[in-house]
Amino acid sequence: MTARLVVLISGNGSNLQAILDACASGELPASVVCVISNKADAYGLVRAKNAGVEAVHFAKLSTETRQEYDQRLADYVTTKQPDYIILAGWMRILSSSFLSSFPNKVINLHPALPDTFPGTHAIERAFEAYQRGEIDHTGVMVHLVPDEGVDNGPVLATEIVSIDKEDTLETLEARVHQTEHVLLVNTLKKILEEKVTRSY
Ligand code: GAR
Description:
The protein is an alpha/beta fold. The chain has a single domain, classed as 3-Layer(aba) Sandwich (Rossmann fold), CATH 3.40.50. The chain is built from six helices and seven strands, in the order βαβαβαβαβαββα. It starts with a strand and ends with a helix. The model has no long low-confidence stretch (mean pLDDT 96).
């Protein structure tokens, strides 16, 4: 079975690229059927086009509420018949107007461990906490998105990322992103394999 993935992004799309590469190599038994960005200039849209995948800039209209936008987005995503919706650097909180259409299907990636540094600039905030002597490591996580909680929900996988004395924010960011690329693909792979097993 080839799973249908819709990937939501807001920026660079390096994690989207990891998914696209894993689909192309056969590592993931899946195909990305659509990439959606709330930002017109997200480089991830270019990555999608380069891979021959539908790339959509889905902008919020000034005349619509957040709930109306989320409902319109849910209606569009539904037409793609996704098995899973991956939030790979999607920097908008989804309301129940979206989430209620896809129970147990929305998966978020966050560059920090559970219950630490939710929201934006998580790596930067972890680095600052390290410099203040408050933490000696950070990490990444993949989790389900059941509700509007920010970067919070049933955890599917975590990986610790060490922070070293020699680190700069840039070197830490690079190590966190490398870890994310591997953890995201491995977690999706596990989920898809379990789904295949369960369907027999
Ligand atoms: C990733 O680090 C992802 O974990 C983070 O945005 C980055 C997107 O990078 N997401 C969040 O912070 C969600 N709160 P990418 O566009 O290169 O994949």
